[in-house]
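It would be a great kindness if you could assist me with a short task in structural biology. A protein sequence and the structure tokens that stand for its backbone fold form the material at issue. I should value your view on which stretches of the chain appear to form regular backbone elements. The record follows directly beneath this note.
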Amino acid sequence: MDTTLDIVPVRIADHYKVISDLMHELHVHEHSLFDKTAAWSDIETNYMRHVIEMQDQHDGLCLLAYADNAPIGFIFGYVEEQDDSRIEIHEGKELYISDGVVLEQYRRLGIYKMLNETLEQHYINKGIKRIIRFTLVNNTRMRQFLENEGYGVTRLLYERWL
């Protein structure tokens, strides 16, 4: 890659259009994998409000990747604190990585891996011991990435659409 790559933390509310445009790219990709994914135009306002709230109220971090000063990808996660109703041994705070994407022309260059490692290290330094992620079952590239990064499948979500 002959471009300059920068990864910077941003406040979503201050970079609303950039993050929303990248979220749109994420939703287009997810819709190609699962036709029940809502159109970004139908959910943008509420979803962006949600991620802004999670960033502001739940120690969220959004990292934006720039190539030659143009935004090309992002990753976002925030802290969840579990209550005593969980059945797992682990109690306490955990990182939920909710969203992330790299524009198609920049994929397979290790950019998402860099975003992910930077995000995880930020929270590991804060004492997080558990990281949770969801992906679509047929998103084989993401599943392979997660398994290569040490993630394991612990539960399967079954759905029945009526």
In short: The domain at 5-148 is CATH 3.40.630.30 (Aminopeptidase). The first strand starts at residue 5 and ends at 10.
